Amino acid sequence: MKRALPTLVAALACLAACDATVPTGPPLQGAQQALFADYPTGLFADAARACTRTGGKTRQHDRDDLLCEQLPDPQLAAALILHFDGTIEDLPSLNTRIYGAPAVQGYVVTVDNYIDMPGRDGRTRQIRLPSEGLDESMRAMLQRSGGRPF
Q1: Fold for domain 22-149?
Q2: 24 pLDDT more than 50
Q3: Are 118 and 90 in contact (CB under 8 A)?
Q4: Residue ranges with strand state E in the chain
Q5: 8 A C-beta contact, residue 86 and residue 92
Q6: Considering only 13-17, 42-46, 127-131, which range has the smallest mean pLDDT?
Q7: Are 67 and 55 in contact (CB under 8 A)?
Q8: Where residue 30 falls among pLDDT bands split at 50, 70, 90?
């Protein structure tokens, strides 16, 4: 384990410093990635429409970064607040962030799903809960959009 940490740090530094290769796996638990031949214009536009159609709010930071925020139903919100020591003054949100970056082989898109959980101490935590069904759904969406999940 002592050897793994320096190796991981070196690998991450290399990925951050150069754009020569496609990363070999999801950067965060639950995140899914795919390689596209070029920029997937339709993916970002379709995701924004789907988000607002289901009652969510979108934030487009730039052409490569889209965030969809949705409030959970009341029962789920209550369960999250109780389990993660949240507060009713600031409700949790279910988030899907889609972001991409050019790569030598094309364009890499990452889809990251997480819960923003405001706490009683005023800080917001990102909660990632494993879900094979959600992971598979995100991989399928990336594939339908023309990407090659990896």
Answers
A1: TATA-Binding Protein (3.30.310)
A2: no
A3: yes
A4: 32-36, 57-62, 65-70, 93-103, 106-118, 124-127, 148-149
A5: yes
A6: 13-17
A7: no
A8: confident
* In the chain, where the domains are located: 22-149
Give the residue from 26, 54, 30, 58 showing the smallest Cα distance to 44: 58
**How many angstroms separate the Cα of 75 from the Cα of each of 55, 65, 71?**
17, 30, 11
Alpha carbons 38 and 107: distance in angstroms, whole number:
5
- pLDDT value at 9 more than 90: no
Q: Is 23 left (phi over 0), alpha (psi -120 to 50) or beta?
A: beta
Structure tokens at 67: 């965030």
Q: How far is CA 143 from CA 119, 137, 139, 149, in A?
A: 36, 10, 6, 7
Residues for the chain: how many in total? 150
**What pLDDT, on the 0 to 100 scale, is given for residue 28?**
74
Q: What is the mean pLDDT of residues 64-90?
A: 96
Q: Mean pLDDT for the chain?
A: 84
Residue 41 in contact with residue 63, Cβ under 8 Å? no
The pLDDT of residue 114 is: 96
- 31 three-class SS: coil
